[in-house]
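User: hey, got a sec? need M23 family metallopeptidase folded
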Amino acid sequence: MRRPTRYAQVWAILLLAALAAAPLPPWAWAAPAPPAPAPSPVRVPQIARAWPVGVRPPVLRGWEPPPTPYGPGHRGADLSAPAGSPVRAVAPGRVSFAGRVAGRGVVSVELAGTDLRTTYEPVSPSVRKGDEVGAGDVVGAVEPTGSHCPVTCVHWGLLRGEIYLDPLLLLPPWLLHRGPSRLLPVLGVPLPA
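Assistant: Yep! Here you go:
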């Protein structure tokens, strides 16, 4: 292997000096970008007026957001319900899909006045695309097969665009309450005469 000549060494030194003295492009000397702000808590209006199935069904598996858009997770809530049970719209809206996907019955409802849509599966639809539904209206019945639960269940989903959200956020506290209402004693109030 030949050693560089004195001439080549001089040119290499001049080239390095020129590169070192050259002005840097703006992207090279600009301040680093500030870190991205932490995502704000997801805002979901508590507009549900009924559970999709039953009065207060057991939640077999809750919402588990995936770490990436295509990563593992649970994009909804599994609610225990016997086969044939009515499935109800949780809030007023318009049916955007009613049919079969991958062998399972699916109903999707765009919620009125929002950018949200709920999904229910596996369901035998009793509605059609375009139907208006009110809160508590029956949209189908729980199918006996096609569930990923150990017992018959309905997978209830909530989406904003293509982003999955926790459907339980739609429920106001009075629908989430687990036990009977209890009145507290009123102290310090005189009894009526």
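Quick note: The chain has a mean pLDDT of 82. Let me know if you need anything else on M23 family metallopeptidase.
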